[in-house]
């Protein structure tokens, strides 16, 4: 990864700069300004794009893989899925109709998808617009969330964002589930930070300057808070958990291949965009699924323990996240 290419400019992409009278190549490249605003594991941005005629090829970039943290590349492919959602939401906004072909070459696991653009005759809905405008507003929110239960209507909107038969969403506001998640998180943090290879990998990526320091602060803060509270008032702890995470969500799939991981990423980003439009914060809590011994425990918390847990996050109303993370310049992710 080349830290020199990091910039904040993609966050201020102006939709009016869309080259409506330009070539197909110029239009498709413009859409990629939105794709790269997607979340990714430690902001590694493990994606590449190739614009070819009326197609965009979406590729996984294993040079930006974190082998210690993510040995099976689950989160790398989830990240690529997030970028794919942004790309499709932006395409819809600019009127494109498209077809997506996943893993078009059986023997090429890096070639994740080809998006073939058919025409620009799509009639936009209000929901399409809201998702699009959420792209530059969405940031991982690591703050304490507001102590306000999520309304039925908003809950339904979050559920509606899961529009994919390959992925199921478990959402819980149960104190027991949250308390268990909290315990597992601490176990995961201790396991990971005890591993020198993990620390080295983390240090490398933090040095690249792509990761907002709030990530580390929230991890270490989590451990400290839980430890300080141990043995003291559990009521206080419950209140804290409720206040800071009204809902815990787990995305699961029937299988665990890269296709299903991409799908989980697509759905996660849909939820994140829908939640952003509803003034919600969202934060992945990946460490729970990065420690193999804890993965089954996460699955067991859900109503579908037979499925493969792919992603876990908290979501709730929140003040907007402060600041944003940089992105690699578009040119550096074009293949
Ligand atoms: C697969 C994946 C795993 C992530 N894991 C965590 C996590 O465990 N904790 C966290 O605070 N953020 C996590 N994030 C959020 C990223 O750190 C964040 O997307 C990235 O730093 C870019 O910042 P942004 O989301 O604000 O644009 C994850 C994101 C993805 C896509």
Q: Mind telling me the CATH class of the largest domain?
A: Alpha Beta
CATH architecture assignment name of the largest domain: 3-Layer(aba) Sandwich
Biggest sheet architecture: 4 strands, antiparallel
**How many strand segments?**
10
Number of domains: 2
Considering DSSP H and I runs of 4 or more, what fraction of the residues is helical? 40-55%
- Specify the number of helices: 11
Structural class: alpha+beta
Average predicted confidence as pLDDT: 90
Tell me the span between the first and last alpha carbons. Answer: 14 Å
- CATH homologous superfamily placement of the largest domain: NADH Oxidase
Strand content: 15-25%
Task: Give, in order, the helices and strands.
Answer: EHEEHEEHHEHHHHEHEHHEE
Q: What bound compounds does this protein have? A: flavin mononucleotide
Q: Which regions are unreliable across 5 or more consecutive residues at pLDDT < 50?
A: 228-239
- If you compute it from the alpha carbons, what radius of gyration comes out, rounded to the nearest whole angstrom? 19 Å
Biggest sheet: strand arrangement = 2-3-5-4
Give the overall shape. globular
- Quote the CATH topology of the largest domain: NADH Oxidase
Labels describing this entry:
NADH Oxidase, 4-stranded antiparallel beta sheet, 11 helices, alpha+beta, binds flavin mononucleotide
TL;DR of this structure?
This protein is 42% helix and 18% strand.
Please describe what this structure looks like.
It is built from eleven helices and ten strands. It has 335 residues and is of the alpha+beta class. It has two domains: 3-139 and 324-333, NADH Oxidase (3-Layer(aba) Sandwich), CATH 3.40.109.30; 152-317, NADH Oxidase (3-Layer(aba) Sandwich), CATH 3.40.109. It has a four-stranded antiparallel beta sheet with strand order 2-3-5-4, with helices on one face. Strands 6-7-9-8 form a four-stranded antiparallel beta sheet, with helices on both faces. Strands 1-10 form a two-stranded antiparallel ribbon. It is globular, with a radius of gyration of 19 Å. The two termini are 14 Å apart. Mean pLDDT is 90; it is low at 228-239. Residues 39-43, 75, 78-79, 82, 139-140, 142, 211-212, 215, 218, 283-287, 324-325 line the site of flavin mononucleotide.
């Amino acid at each position: 990864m080349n830290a020199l290419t990091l910039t904040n400019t993609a966050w201020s992409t102006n939709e009016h700069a869309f080259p409506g009278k330009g070539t197909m190549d110029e239009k498709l490249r413009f859409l990629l300004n939105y794709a790269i605003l997607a979340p990714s594991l430690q902001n590694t941005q493990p994606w590449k794009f190739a614009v070819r005629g009326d197609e965009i090829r979406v590729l996984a970039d294993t040079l930006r893989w974190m082998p210690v943290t993510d040995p099976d590349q689950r989160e790398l492919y989830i990240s690529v899925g997030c970028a794919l959602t942004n790309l499709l939401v932006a395409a819809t906004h600019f009127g494109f109709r498209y077809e997506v072909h996943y893993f078009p070459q059986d023997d090429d696991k890096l070639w994740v998808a080809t998006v073939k653009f058919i025409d620009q005759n799509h009639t936009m809905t209000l929901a399409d617009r809201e998702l699009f405008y959420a792209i530059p507003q969405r940031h991982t929110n690591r703050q304490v969330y507001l102590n306000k239960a999520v309304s039925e209507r908003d809950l339904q909107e979050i559920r509606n964002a899961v529009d994919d038969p390959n992925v199921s969403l478990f959402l819980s506001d149960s104190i027991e589930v949250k308390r268990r998640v909290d315990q597992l998180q601490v176990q995961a943090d201790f396991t990971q930070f005890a591993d020198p290879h993990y620390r080295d990998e983390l240090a490398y990526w933090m040095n690249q300057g792509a990761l907002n320091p709030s990530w580390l602060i929230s991890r270490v803060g989590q451990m400290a808070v839980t430890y300080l509270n141990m043995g003291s008032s559990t009521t206080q702890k419950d209140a804290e958990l409720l206040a800071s995470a009204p809902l815990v969500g787990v995305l699961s799939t029937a299988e665990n291949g890269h296709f299903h991981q991409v799908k989980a990423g697509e759905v996660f980003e849909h939820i994140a965009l829908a939640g952003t439009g509803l003034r919600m914060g969202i934060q992945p809590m990946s460490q729970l699924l990065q420690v193999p011994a804890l993965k089954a425990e996460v699955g067991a918390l859900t109503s579908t323990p037979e499925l493969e847990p792919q992603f876990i996050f908290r979501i709730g109303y929140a003040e907007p996240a402060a600041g944003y993370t940089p992105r690699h310049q578009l040119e550096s992710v074009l293949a």
